[in-house]
Amino acid sequence: MPARHLRTTGTTLRLAIALLVSAAVLAVVLVVPWGGSEPEAAPDPTISHTPEPPTPPPAPVRQNTYACPAYSGIDRTNPVANLYKDTFSWGKTPPTKIGDGKGNINWRANPDQNPSWYMWLHSLRWLGQGINAGAKGDKRALQHVSAIVRDWVKDNPYSWKSDVGAYESTMHRTNVLICLRQAVLSGTHVSKLPLTYAWLDDALVKHAWFLQKNYSGDWNHGTDESLALFGVGCTLGRSDLKKIAADRLTSAIKTSIDTQGTTNEQSTAYAQFNYALWGRAIDVLRKCGVDPGTTITARRRELAKWLALATNSLGNLPQLGDSEVVKTVPVPGTVLEYAGTLGARGIRPTQRIGIFDGGYVFGRTGWGETRPFTQESTYSIRFGPSRKLHGHEDHTSITYTSRGRDILIDGGHSGYKWDDWRSWAKSQDAHNEMTVESAAAAHPDTRLTRSSIGATSEFYELKDKLGPVDRTRGVLVLKDPDLIVVLDRGTAPTDQKYSTLWHLPADQKVVVSGNDRAVAAKPGDRVKTTLLQIPFQQRTTPIEVATGRQDPIQGWHYTTIDKRLPSPVVKFDRAGRDATILSVIAPTRTNATVSYTTSWQGSRMLVNLKVDGVTTVIGVAADGTLQRIK
Q: Membrane-crossing residues (predicted)?
C-alpha cells in the first residue's frame, strides 16, 4: 500500500541480545555505504512528488569479491601501539589491558560490567588498525592481530552460544575474520592462504554454520548476519552459503522496510541505519555475482522519502525510539539531499505532510519557500503497532521544532544497559503524552482515527487503551501563528492518576504563573515557549515542573547514550475516573504576549488566542474535535 502522503491542500535470552547488538548503529551508521557503491565512508546525517533522479548504471566491478566492510569506527581508539600491549578501548571506559602482550587475551574481562563493551571486545573490530597495517606489509602487526584472533578461536570453541557477548558479535567477528584473511593474502603477497592459517578458514566455516543456525530474524541484526554469511560464501567459494544468505535478504527486505518506507525498528536512527545497510546489501550481492533484484532499491527509495519527511527544521531526525540526536544524511541524487543540507542543495520537496501506517505522522509548515528553512515549524506524532525492537512507549507523543530551535523534545536514548535509566527512557514518562500511573507498563496498539489537513492547520485524533483506561488525544497544529493545541481525554472504571507531560530542552528555565500557564526560555534567548493549561470540562490543577529528579527519575534528556542533561518537564495533572486536559504549546519571541479567553457556542467551547498580536480562534467540541475557526 502506498504511504498516505498528503499535499499542502489535501485532506484525509532474544531481547537481551537485541539490546547488545543495537549499539552497532551508533558507530556503523558512519561507515556503511548509502548509495549502493563503495567506499564505506558516508557523510553525516527528507519526501517529494518530484521524481527522484534515476540511479546511474553501476560501474563495472570485479565479480566474486567481498570487500572488507571496515570496522565501524571502533578501530579509531585502538591504535596499533595499543594492540601490541593487548589494550582495548571502547566508549567511556578507559583503555583496559586485557592480555599479556603476546595476544593471550582474557575474553571474560568486563571492567564496568557493560554489555556493549563486552560485545565489542568479542567483535574483534577493535583490531582494525592492526589488520590494515598488516595488509600493507607490516609483518609485526599482522602477526600480533593474528595471534589475538587465533586466541579468540581457541578460547571460544564452537558453539559459543552460551556467552551472549560472543554470540551477539558473531556477525561482526565474521567480517573481521574475512578482513584478516584478505590482509594475510595482500600483506604476504600470496594468492592462496598459507597452511599456517588453515585455522582461519576453519573458523570462517564454523562462523558460517553458527549464522545459519542462529538467524535473528528480519531486522537490522538479521540483515547484518545474512551479509556476513554471504561474505563467507563469497570468500570460500561456497555457493550454498551464498544462496541461503541471498534468499534471506530477498525475504527480509519485505519485512524490514514496508511499501511506504517505514522500517520495523520503531526508531528514526535505525531507519537511517537501515537505509545505509540495505545499500551495502546491494553492493555485496552484485559484487559477488548475485542479482539483488528490484525490491531492495524500491523499498530504499521509499525509506529515503520517509526520512526526508521526518527531518526537522534543524536538519536532525526526531529522537523516536532508540535514537541519539543524529543529522539527516544529505545523500546526493536522492530526496534526502535538500533537507539534509537545510535547503542549500537538491530539489525542494513539494509535499509537507506524511502519514504512515507504520505509526508515524511527520509534518511541517513548509520547506523554506517563504521563510528560511530553519525558521519553519516541524512536528512528529507517534501511533501504530505496540512497541518492539528499538521502539519506546511513545504512542501519541509529539516532538516539535519552531523558530530555529527545539520546542518539545523526546527523553532520548540511554543506551543498552538494563537499569533504571533505560527503563525510564523507554517508558511513557520520557515522552510527550498523557500518562496513567496504573498502566505504566502497558504496550498498546494506537489507532489514528481521524485526520484533516488544511492550508494553515492539521487535526489528528489518536485512540488506544492503557490497561483499564481508554485514552484519546486530539492534536491541532497551526501555521501563522505556529503553535500546537492538544486535547487529552481518559476514562476508566476506577480512579486514576493522569499526567500530560511536556518535555522541554535542557537549556530552558521554566516559570509557572497560576494554574494556567508556564513560560520556558533559555536565559538571554530571543525565543520563549508558553504552555497553557486551559480549563475544559474540568477544573485545572496546579502545574508541576520536574527537572533532574532521580527518585523517581524524571526531567532528563539523553542527547547521546553518554550525555544525560537535566531537562524540565511541565506536568498537567488530573485525578479521578475521567480526565480532560487541554494544552497549548506556543513558541514566540521572548517579549511577545500570549493570552486567551474562552466562550461557548452551544456545546462547543471557543478559545480566543492572541499570540504576539495575532488573534486566532480554536473550536473545542464535546466529541474532542479541534478546529481552527480563524
A: 12-35
Cα–Cα distance between 592 and 528 in angstroms, integer?
Answer: 9
pLDDT of residue 440: 76
C-alpha dihedral sign at 249, 253, 254, 256: positive
Identify the CATH number of the domain in which residue 94 sits: 1.50.10.100
Which of 265, 293, 321 is where one domain is finished? Answer: 293
280 and 414 housed in the same domain:
no
296 residue type, one letter: I
Number of domains in the chain: 2
Q: 107 and 237, same structural domain?
A: yes
Contact between 303 and 539 under an 8 Å Cβ cutoff? The reply is no
Q: Which of 293, 318, 338 is the last residue of a domain?
A: 293
The gap between the terminal CA atoms of the chain, to the nearest Å, is 36
How many C-alpha atoms does 531 have within 13 Å on its Cβ side?
A: 27
Kindly state the cell numbers that stand for 77: 581508539
3-state SS, residue 81: helix
- Structural domain includes residue 162: yes
Look at residues 323, 267, 334 and name the one whose alpha carbon lies nearest to residue 300.
334
Position 576 confidence tier, pLDDT thresholds 50, 70, 90:
very high
Q: List, for residues 192-220, the tens digit of each pLDDT value.
A: 999 999 999 999 999 999 999 999 999 99
Q: State yes or no: pLDDT of 49 exceeds 60.
A: no
In this structure, what DSSP letter does residue 533 have?
E
Say which CATH number the domain at 527 has: 2.70.98.70
Question: What is the predicted pLDDT for the residue at 604?
Answer: 96
Which amino acid makes up residue 119? M
- The answer to whether residue 625 is domain-embedded is no
Residue 377 lies in a domain: no
How many helices and strands in the chain, by DSSP H and E? 15, 28
Q: Position of cell 551508533?
A: 26
In a domain, 49, yes or no: no
Question: DSSP assignment of 493-523, as one string?
Answer: EEEEEEEEEEE--TT-EEEEETTTEEEEE-T
Which residues are within 8 A (CB) of 382 and not within 5 positions of it... i.e. 6 or more apart?
A: 320, 359, 360, 361, 394, 395, 396, 397, 446
Question: What are φ and ψ of residue 372, in 5° steps?
Answer: -60, 150
**CA nearest 320: which of 446, 409, 221, 419?**
409
8-state DSSP, 370: S
If asked whether residues 288 and 406 sit together in one domain, one would say: no
